[in-house]
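Lab notebook page, bench 4
Experiment: in silico fold of construct C2
Operator: M.H.
Input chain length: 171 residues
Purpose: comparison with the prior construct
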Amino acid sequence: MNQEEGAKLTVTSTAFEHQGWIPARFTCDGDSVSPDLAWDGGPEGTRSFVVWMQDPDVPSPGLRLFTWVHWLVYDIPAEVRALPEALPKVAVLDNGAKQGVTSFRRPGYGAPCPLVGTHGYHFAVYALDTMLSLQPAQASSRAIRQAMQGHVLAEGVLIGRYNRARRVESE
């Protein structure tokens, strides 16, 4: 993706620590609301950010793993460094950012709800040197990924885990 050598973002949440358990509030066993996210500033030339949440631990019928996309927020203005908890599931947010179509076939946060076992949910943030300018509530993960090609300046990831048998009600 043409990332600058060593350019990293630090992604955090007050809801859980990196590699920690995601509280049930943010899952299908709770309120199904998005957690808050924050990231340190992007490098010089950052014009926008993308938040991409995925679960790479989803088994398919052939017992292979594939990636399920839970959340796509793009064209987040460069001056924005955080998303609050419980973002509305709308095409365009108040700050001008747009939400793309997830594996749930709709825009907005899709809560973790693994059928079996522990899954790792990757909340990635990308700093881009451009705005993607894709149609809100219509842009797929494939379209967003293609539009990001050659424009990633830095990235960071926060990983949270969830297992429905080991629900964490609060941290």
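Observations: The chain has a mean pLDDT of 91. Residues 11-165 form a domain with the Phosphatidylethanolamine-binding Protein fold (CATH 3.90.280.10).
Next step: discuss at group meeting.
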